[in-house]
Sequence to fold (173 residues):
Amino acid sequence: KRMKTIILDILEFSRVGKYNEEPTAINVNDLVQEIVGYHRNAIDNKKVIITYENLPTITCFKSPITQIFQNLISNSIKYAKKDEIVNISIKQFEVDKDHWGFAVEDNGIGIEERYFEKIFILFQRLNIRQDDSGNGIGLAIIKKIVENLGGKIWVTSEINVGSTFYFTIAKNV
Fold:
């Protein structure tokens, strides 16, 4: 069963960059609202507050940009501190005239600095929680998507304080 999951994950990773769609105007506020709706049960059960506003309308492929925000939001929920309200903040930041910049910040369990690069490598897991069923592919896929969209991704974090994932994408994809 685990081998089948790994094979499917490898296939998903290999498909990154092959989009069967044209770039389209995407209101990122609306996109985040869709993702919030998708996670409604987890948000209600874990007492999650997601704040965002004034996010731009970008021209991009919808499925990969959705996957970026989907993964980062779900990771923020997944790696929340027990019995604490989860705060997730999504913001746009200034980069340059050719790139959009976004930050997804949470107040979760955090990541040790020595793992900042490792978390973006395929099948690398930190084994923070034994009940985590992931294969360590989510952030590797996100990194590959971001790079295919002409950008970069990085993280800042502090244990027991939270993490902020930053990413940029080209304005003209």
User: Anything to note?
Assistant: DSSP finds five helices and seven strands in the chain. The helical segments are 2-15, 28-38, 40-46, 62-78, 138-148. Residues 23 and 45 are 35 Å apart (CA to CA).
